[in-house]
Structures are given as structure tokens and as C-alpha cells.
Amino acid sequence: MSHSTVPRSRAEAHHPADRTPVASGGATGARQKAIKGRLSLRLRFRRDRVLLLMTLPAILLLLLFNYLPILGNIVAFQDYDPYVSDNGIVSMLHSPWVGLENFQRIFEDSAFWNAVQNTLVLFSLQLVLFFPIPIALALLINSVVRPRVRALSQAIMYLPHFFSWVLVIAVFQQLLGGAGVLSQLLRRHGYDGLDIMTDPSTFKFLVTAESIWKDAGWGIIVFLAALASVSPDLYEAAAMDGAGRWRRMWHVTLPALRPVIALLLVLRVGDALTVGFEQILLQRDAVGPGAAEVLDTFVWWNGVRNQDFGYAAAAGLIKGVVSLGLVLAANKIAHLMGEQGVYRK
Amino acid sequence: MTAVVDKPPVRKPSAWAAVPRPVWEEEPSRAGLAGKGLVLTLACLGILFPLWIVVVTSVSSRKTIDEAGGLVMVPKGITLVAYRELLSGGQVTRAAIISVLVTLVGTLFSMAVSVLCAYGLSRIGSLGHRWLLMLLLATMFFSAGLIPTYLLVQSLGLTDSYLALILPSAVSVFNILVLRGFFMGISQELIDSARIDGAGDFRILWQIVMPLSRAVLAVITLFYAVGYWSAWFNASLYLNDQNMMPLQNVMIQLVQKQEAPVGLGQAIKTGQLSGLAVQMAVMVMALLPVAVLSPFVQRHFKKGMLTGAIKG
Question: Which residues in B lie closer than 8 A to residue A303 (C-beta atoms)?
């Protein structure tokens, strides 16, 4: 095998800085170019063709299901008629162009602004109520000194993360629904039953509670790892200097968690317009769109249910573009604050 | 038993016992300890109590359920009649089989594609590796949107096919990056020496890289399997035939919308069978595989999550 004798530029493989693929530039980049330059493209292709072949299935699937549909967003500028043909692409080619009409309609649609408002309120609620809980739980678990207790409580707290949303909502229905445990208890003591699952006024808190039940435990994992990487010497040195339990937490633990907190905040803010599509869609009918419609369900309702594809795609496109802007902006802010963000510059 | 020379026969401390505190750390106050224990217990009970009710009600007789006025908290005799009815053929049996098959086939497919791609991108300096990685990473920043994806899947003729439940969500870039991060940590010398011995890339992956990556492979397999097992949205979008629906979708009908399972309506109406027990049994069927499998993989989570993924 001829290609097996050509090493894949070992100097690079051993350079630790190059292990992070996105980071490039400076002296390393220059060296890399020099090394690459020694092999012709054809030789490198012969050497790496098996590797390229291996990436092919995944790349094709991504191109097909993640990249190709981007083109489909042109229906946002069409009066798309799904009944022209059985095939969506054929229909797309035969639908009339309407310019920005769909967008105009959206901006005048109070249902859209209601969805925007619900999305933002839910995002804020989740940020304030959900976000601190994994940090607190991680600090708590980290202070548990019995390994078995620690492993057991972790196992229990991770568990709901692996449940489907259908199951989580069904579980909440048994607790808080009209025939649930809470209503059962109230009735036994002579009060009226209570159906929180269909109450629009408390719906946003319900959704947040469901998210916390399902995923707050899982959120611990990242913080636990960050905590494990803090050198015990730091704690000891702080203790020698007279820092008590709380001052050590403030001056040693929290600075160690700061990069992780910043990264997760950036990720969360970048994803602000996505507030649990499946979760809310499952409960939309029970609560009604007034309280439960978020941007994603707005797109679903108008497109899939009402078959108004152009309109729905336009709403989806607005969401996608704003989201992209948010991710990039959140990263920028993280960099400015001296944190790493999702990608490196 | 091999002879242990340098290790005196010390009894291993019980895993329940506390690891001794460093000398500089102050003894925790009694109130602090009690408070921590309370919070931890409450958090765990908050997760386990609802599951307990679901499980107990699913194995309760109609009489027990009527006496309790609904959900049962304290078990009084165990009956598996709800499970027997659900698993003796019919809607739920079919849905469970469908879910198991889709999960098995989907997970196998996703793992094959992801492991290959992760290895293909794990050799720094290989041709086009940087570009391909960019192509992967970029997908984490945008989404084409629900409507265009729907139109595409429909145009591909995947409607009413199980492929629609597998192909569109088969590749998780996050999972590939985790795998890749792990593969990159395997020593280059090991791989080079195998290459000198004449092994090709497929063989290196199969015989060297994968056996060394069991932990992360277990984690990612679990992630994919849970993803397929929990999915319901694509089925609701692309499948029209009610007989093709997987377990989660049937659970929506039976538990959330409170419909009686096909064929069991009569038995529930006449009181032979408790409708509530049947609903809870469906829920247990959905949670059991996950609850049984995930703790086994738990100890690998941290390792699996941290290599690669967090570093981006």
C-alpha cells in the first residue's frame, strides 16, 4: 500500500495547539502550510482517500438534510401552493412569487407578536429560574464526601433527562392535572380540584417547572467536571490564608466555574428563540395558543396545520436569521468579556 | 490470584463511607450537614416520587385504584393485568415493537455513520479535514427551518416510510465531535505502528481505535438510542397511517388525550380493566428501557461529555 508509507505530517499531529481544529493562525499555521506544501494534492488525496470515504456518509446526510433545505426557504417569498403537485420541489417551481408579502403579513399579525412575546417571556423565566439550579446542585453534590451517595444521587438526577417529552408531560399530568395527585389531595380535604395542565395563566411556570424536572439534573454534569478540575492546592492555600468555607467558594470555586457559566450563558442566549418546541407543542391544544404559542409552534401551526407554507416559512426564516445573529452577537460579547465562547476567533 | 508483595492486606473502605477530609478543612456544622442532606433528599424524591406513583398505579387492581380515588401511592397487591392486556397483541404491542425496531436500526445506522465520520476527521492534517470540520460545525449555528425540511422529506418520497424517522435525524454533529475528540486522544504512535504493520484505516478503526473507545461509544450509543426511542414529532409529521405509529405517539393518544386503546375500550367500560392502570402501564413501558440502561452508562458520562464537545 503506497499511501501507508506517507506519514500524515506528524509534527502537526503532535503539536498540542493544533488539536483544536478551529484555532489556527500565527506560527503554527505557517508551519502547517510549509509541511503541507511538500506533498502534492494528488499524493495527499491518495494517502487520505480512505479517510475521506469514511466521512462521506455523514457529510452526504448533512448536505441533504441540513444544507439542502436552506434553499427551500425560497417558499417564504412565494404564495406556495402545496396542491400543484405531490412533490414539494415541483410545487415550489410552479408557485407564484410574491416578494415580501408574507413578511408584511407577519408583521401585521397579532398572533405572531403574541408568539414573540411568549417566546421571550419563557426564555427569561427559564434563564432566571432554571439556569442557577444546576450550579447550586453541582456545588451541593460536589460537597458530598461519600462516593456511593454521590453516585446514587447523580444517577437519580440524570435520569429524567433521558425521558421523552411525551413521558415528562404525562408524568406532570398525573401530578398536577385535573385527575392528578394534587387534585386528589385537595378533593379529599374538601376543596375543589385544580387542573394546572390546562391553565393558561400559570402555563409558563408549568413549562419552566417541567424543564427543571427534566434537565436541571443533567446540567450538573458540566459544572461537576469544572469543579473536579480545580486544584485542591488552591483550596488549601486559601484555607491557610484564613479563608473560610464561603470565602473559598467565592474566591476559588466561582472563578473556576466562570468560563463554563459564560459558555453556557452564551449558548443559551444564542438559542433564546428556541424554548422547547416539542414540549410546548404537546401542550398547545390543552392550554390554547394565547399562552402557549411560541415562534416554533407558530411556524408549525401555520405550515403543517393550515398548509400556509409560504407564510410559515417566512416566520421560520425570521426566527432563523435573528437566531443566527443572536449566536454571533453572544459569542462576540463573550470574547469581549475575555471568555472563550462557542468558537474561537 | 497473583502474589501481592508490596500491598499490605488493607480492607478497602466501603464506598458508603466518607472520604476523609483534608486537615485544613473545617468540620461541617451539624445544621449545614442536615440542610444539605435535606435538599439532596428532596431533589431525589422530587424525581422518584412521580415515577413511583406511575409504576404503583400500573400494577394496581381496579379495586385499589377506585379506593384510592385515582392514582395509588401505597401498593396493595400487585397485578400485571394491564400489562398482559397491552402486550397480548394489538395497538400498544405493535407500537412497542415498532419503537424497538426503529431504535435498533436507527442507532446502528447513526453509530456507523458517526464513528466513520469521527475517525475520518480525527487525523489532523489529512486532506480537506479543516473544510469538512467547518461544514459540520456550521450546522450548529443555523437550522434550515421546519417548513423547508418538511417539504424536502416529503419531496424525497419518505412520507409514510420509517426512513423518515431515521434519516433526517441520523447524524448529530455534537455526537460526532464528542467521538472525534476522544479518537484524537488516542496516541498517534499506536496508529502509526499499526499502519507500518500494514493495517488500513478501516482496520485501525475497528481493531485499535474502537476497542480503546468503549466508554465514549457506550455514551454516544445511549444518546442516539434515547433520541430514537423518545422521538414522536417526525412520526406525527411524516406518518399518516395510525398503524405505523411508534410508542410515544400512541402514548400521546392514550395518556394525554385519554383515548382507550384499540380493542380494550370495552373491557375498560365494563370495569374489568382500569383505564388508569392501562395508561400508567404504557408510561412504564416507555420509561423502563431508559431507566434500566442509562445508569449503566452513567460513569462514562463525564468522560464522554468533556472530550471534544466542550472544547468545540
Answer: 146-147, 150
